[in-house]
Each structure stands twice: as structure tokens, then as C-alpha cells.
Amino acid sequence: MKNSARMALIAVAALGLFGAGCAKKKVAAVTPPAPQQAVEAPRQTPAAQPARSTPAPQQATTSIPRSNMPTAAEKARIEQLLARIEDAYFDYNQHTLRPDAIKALQADSTELRDIISQYPDYKLTIEGHCDERGSEAYNLALGDARAKAAQDYLVGVGISKNQLNVLSYGKDKPVCEEHDEACWAKNRRIHIVATK
Questions:
Q1: Spatial distance between the Cα atoms of 17 and 11, rounded to a whole number of angstroms
Q2: Is 105 in the same domain as 82?
Q3: Which helix (H) or strand (E) holds 88?
């Protein structure tokens, strides 16, 4: 009887151990669903994010981008300014700006800068001119140097160099065709025009 009681006790203990082992397996089987719930929660968050970001594109479409070119009215205003800016004149065989040339450029250049700085695609051309004396090649180089001197001045005022083209006509486009110093002095100049 002692043996059968001992055997019964061993059987009960074995069943207890066996049952405890099964219980652990059941607990382990219950654990995996918890991460599935955590994985499902992030899936819902991205679905909610597009709904929040939807108003931003609507706001972007309501604002109209500013043009890089002036309107017809602003172009007319620029043309008026360019007409008021006097040609800058140079001494014989020189390309440095004289004080009267600086004064001519200074008069309306800041207003011109304020307008065209708003339109980066709008460009001006600074034309360099010479009198009839000297070779064609020499006068083309001198006219270019004069235009670049004016360009440097205007860049110093704040006009973007990207908006200022230079073009030398040398002695090919005189404003005066007499053959004396008074006429030659009128031809040694720079002239600013809107680029077409």
C-alpha cells in the first residue's frame, strides 16, 4: 500500500508537472497575438496621416506664383525709366566712367533696380559705342570695355549681373555723323535698352 500510495503520488506529481508544462505552452501561445495588435495600430496611423496632409496641397494651389517677367504696365514703366537715364559719355580712348557719366547712371538706377529685381528673367542690354576714329576691331573692344564699366556700376547699385547683357557696336551706330570733336564726343557713350 505504501508502494501504491507512492505510485499515486508520483503519478499526481507527474500529472502536475505535465499540466504545468502544458500551461506554459498555452501562455506562450497567447503571447504572439499581442504583437499583432501592436502591428495593426501603426497601419491605422498612416491612413490617418493623408487626411491631415490633404489641406496643405489645397493651400498651395490657391496661391498664384509670381511671374518672372513684368506686366505690360510695368514694362512701360521700365521703358520710361530707361528713356530718362541719360547716356553715359566717355573721354577719347577711355572706358572709365567720368563723374558726369556716374551722375547720369545714378539718377534712376535705384528705381530701375527695385523694379527689375522682382523679375529675374527680365534683362537689359548695355550698348557700348565709340567714335569713328580707330579700327573696327579696336573700337569693338573699346565699346565692350565701356559697356562693362557701366555694367559694373549697375551691379554695384544692386542690379543682378545676370540681368545685364553687354553689347559693343564699336563705331557702327553713331548718333552724330559730323567729323569733328563735338560730334565724336556724342558717339563715345553707353546706352541702356530693354533686351527684346
A1: 10
A2: yes
A3: strand 88-89
- The answer to whether 192 and 85 are in contact (CB under 8 A) is yes
We report the CATH number of the domain holding residue 173 as 3.30.1330.60
> CA 98 to CA 182: how far, in whole Å?
17
Q: Is residue 67 part of a domain?
A: no
Say if residue 143 is in the same domain as residue 175: yes
Indicate the SS3 state at residue 127: strand
Of residues 126, 125, 132, the one with CA closest to residue 172 = 132
**CB-facing half-sphere around the CA of 151: CA atoms within 13 A:** 21
**If you ran DSSP here, which 8-state letter would residue 191 be given?**
E
Q: Is the pLDDT of residue 136 over 80?
A: yes
Query: Could you tell me if 154 and 121 lie in one domain?
Result: yes
125 three-class SS: strand
User: Quick check: is 130 in a domain?
Assistant: yes
Residues 150 and 188 in one domain: yes
Q: What digits encode the pLDDT tens for the residues 151-191?
A: 999 999 999 999 999 999 999 999 999 999 999 999 999 99
All three cell numbers of 81, joined, read 525709366
Structural domains in the chain (count): 2
Pairwise CA distance, residues 53 & 183, whole Å: 69
Does residue 87 share a domain with residue 47? no
